[in-house]
Amino acid sequence: MNKPHSTQPRTLHRLAASDRVAEALSLAIHEHRLSPGTKLGEDEIGEVYGVSRTIVRTALQSLAHIQLVEMHRNRGAFVAQPSQQEAREVFEARELLEPRTAHMAAARATAADIDTLRAHIAEEHAAMAAGDRGRALHLSGLFHIEIARIAGQTTIAGFVDELIARSSLIIALYWRRESALCESHAHHDLIEAIAGRDGPSAEDLMRSHLVDLHSALDLHRSAAPARSLKEALQKPGS
Amino acid sequence: MNKPHSTQPRTLHRLAASDRVAEALSLAIHEHRLSPGTKLGEDEIGEVYGVSRTIVRTALQSLAHIQLVEMHRNRGAFVAQPSQQEAREVFEARELLEPRTAHMAAARATAADIDTLRAHIAEEHAAMAAGDRGRALHLSGLFHIEIARIAGQTTIAGFVDELIARSSLIIALYWRRESALCESHAHHDLIEAIAGRDGPSAEDLMRSHLVDLHSALDLHRSAAPARSLKEALQKPGS
DNA sequence: GAACACAATATTGTATACAATCCATTGCCG
DNA sequence: CGGCAATGGATTGTATACAATATTGTGTTC
């Protein structure tokens, strides 16, 4: 499978092949083109991206580590299906971490950072206007990650990264149709607070934004998606 | 060691070979038998544990993800050497997460949990008395992880797990000899607060304990350990 | 016709072989 | 003698082959 050489000049640190595959899979999950529970066969993925199972396996393990996919021994990899309990924990963790990072971001953001954030929002609006809800959701997540990055806490930013990824799955599973996706407004206010160097406001805005998101999820009904068929098909009463 | 998670599959699977190797390496790092910067050759490790490079590679990738080892493309894996900046970030993250988990743990701990914690302390004392400083350090870390587990936040517990692991490296690199290792006292007080269901006290005790640890590190001197030989041997002035 | 046992198939787990890359030594030339 | 380039060895990156395991299909028995 020798791919023709691209026009790319020799870069000293070419991206590892497994990272490319992991990135592509991650994007597909974030944009809800892959649904929770979907089987991710190694041969199949390898064929798509023109790499061997070795690479695919590495990519899947990487995604499994951030809990975007679940790997079951001798059974394969599946797009993860966070339980309601896990969903609650993810949002509790976000509510603990992100308000603080927003505060720090307000203290450290440069003009260029603000521009980046505004560009994110613009892209998000454009995607939404184009009806590409998956892409809008993905960009919305990137917005949060960008804030953590601006805060200069790469460790916490890594955690936020993982939490955002899982949130995407959670939204795919538990989003209530009734509640509209009106985050753009919250994001806009957040940018203004950060641009205005108003740490406390940024912190409060982030907190309430996350609480809004959390409350727009349906984590109480017993309509939890089943982890296994056996679990799914059993009568609740019996 | 990691206890099996709540979502145990219906079949009791043998531990994967790569997990065994990763666990062994992790333990060696935690107990300071492997120093930061040590090269981890794949063939060498494979020979030690009687497995092929495939397994070793998986284990190393797993450890790289929690930043216990650094992998450099085409150069191999090394025990990670957190910079002073990274060290600060790790402890800032711990100071953000762990006091809260201590609070929650106080609210949820069962009698059995308290016993487990006391057993941890006893083992830690025993190891220290036996002069096994590495093992004592490891057990001290497990104590913190156990508290996060008791708090019932498996997601945050996972983060704490990673932070503890990195802390072990940080202590290996930046611990000031002058300051004595007097944590046992802090851990003891923490247990009492948790046993007494005193959440606020547990939170405060955890916070001050972490601040103590943090301040016992030497994160200001420019004696940062070099990441590479080249960097180490260059004259500072030139 | 239903339930079970067994065989066939497909998929994952692991080992090994080969290719690519880096590092060190060595030899050459200034 | 010092710096630079070519070359050899060692190590990692990737592909493939084989082994182990789960799942599915089929036949037999009651």
UniProtKB/TrEMBL annotation, chains A, B:
UniProt entry tagged with the keyword Cytoplasm: no
CDD domains: WHTH_GntR
Listed SMART domains: FCD, HTH_GNTR
InterPro entries registered for this protein in UniProt: GntR_C, TF_FadR/GntR_C, Tscrpt_reg_HTH_GntR, WH-like_DNA-bd_sf, WH_DNA-bd_sf
UniProt feature coiled coil, ranges: none
Keywords of the record: DNA-binding, Transcription, Transcription regulation
Protein name: Transcriptional regulator, GntR family
